[in-house]
Design goal:
Length: 158
């Protein structure tokens, strides 16, 4: 039977100013637009997770899913492992919709709810899930009556 050594590794990917805290959906959307998504790759869906401390200061971000032009799967185990690796208190998810419409679909709602339940069991807060569209974004915590439940129809421009 093989035995493995498990190590912790951090790698600086960008040096420069980062927000003091990512405490609003607008700041989160701006963080992801500025640090994660490249214009040449917006033809397909990608999911990033931003890991934050108790004061919502960024600890780092991680690409947790790459999909097609219409869907992407976010792995709960991958998000949870990365959050535990950096001792995160909270996670903010973000993915893009190549169609330009940031409203969540049923798969987005279902997967986000499942991820929230998984993170809750580890005492890690799912702070928000942002969906970026062409000219607007959708925030699950700001735009729904019950986060990770049935979405309302409002959209946030930014």
């Amino acid at each position: 039977m093989a035995t493995y050594e498990i190590t912790y590794r951090r790698r600086l990917v960008k040096d420069g100013p980062v927000p003091v805290s990512v405490d609003t959906p607008l700041k989160a959307a701006d963080y992801f637009r500025d640090n994660c998504f490249e214009a040449s790759e917006l033809w397909r869906e990608k999911v990033f997770a931003l890991f934050v401390d108790r004061r919502k200061r960024p600890l780092g971000h991680f690409l947790v899913g790459v999909g097609s032009d219409t869907s992407v799967t976010m792995g709960c185990k991958l998000v949870a492992k990365a959050a535990l690796d950096c001792f995160a208190s909270g996670v903010i998810l973000c993915h893009n919709h190549p169609s330009g419409d940031p409203r969540p679909g049923q798969d987005d709602i279902r997967e986000t709810g499942a991820l929230k339940r998984g993170l809750d069991s580890l005492d890690i807060q799912l702070i928000d899930h942002i969906i970026l569209g062409e000219k607007a974004f959708f925030s699950f915590t700001e735009e729904t009556e019950h986060p990770y439940g049935k979405p309302l129809k409002r959209q946030r421009h930014g």
